[in-house]
Amino acid sequence: MRKTRVWITAQTELCEGICSLWIKDAEMAREAKPGQFLSLYCEDGSRLLPRPVSICEIRPEEGLLRMVYRVAGAGTEEFSHLSAGDGLEVLGTLGNGYELREGSALLLGGGIGIPPMLALAKALCEKNGKEQVTAVLGYRDANTFLAEAFAPYAQVVIATEDGSVGVRGNVLDAVREKGICAEQIYACGPKPMLRGVKAYAREAGLPAQISLEERMACGIGACLACVCESTKPGEHTHVNNVRICKDGPVFDAEEVEL
Amino acid sequence: MNLKVKIAGVELKNPVMTASGTFGSGQEYVELTDLNRLGAVVTKGVASKPWPGNPTPRIAETYGGMLNAIGLQNPGIDVFVKRDIPFLKQFDTKIIVNVCGHTTEEYLEVVERLAAEDVDLLEINISCPNVKEGGIAFGQDPKAVEAITRAVKDVAGQPVIMKLSPNVTDITEMARAAEAGGADALSMINTLTGMKIDVHRRAFALANKTGGLSGPAIKPVAVRMVWQCAQAVSIPIIGMGGIRTWEDAAEFLLAGATAVSVGTANFFRPNAAAEIAEGLAGYLEEVGAESIYDIIGTVR
Question: Are strands B5-7 and A37-40 parallel, antiparallel or unpaired?
Answer without folding.
Answer: unpaired
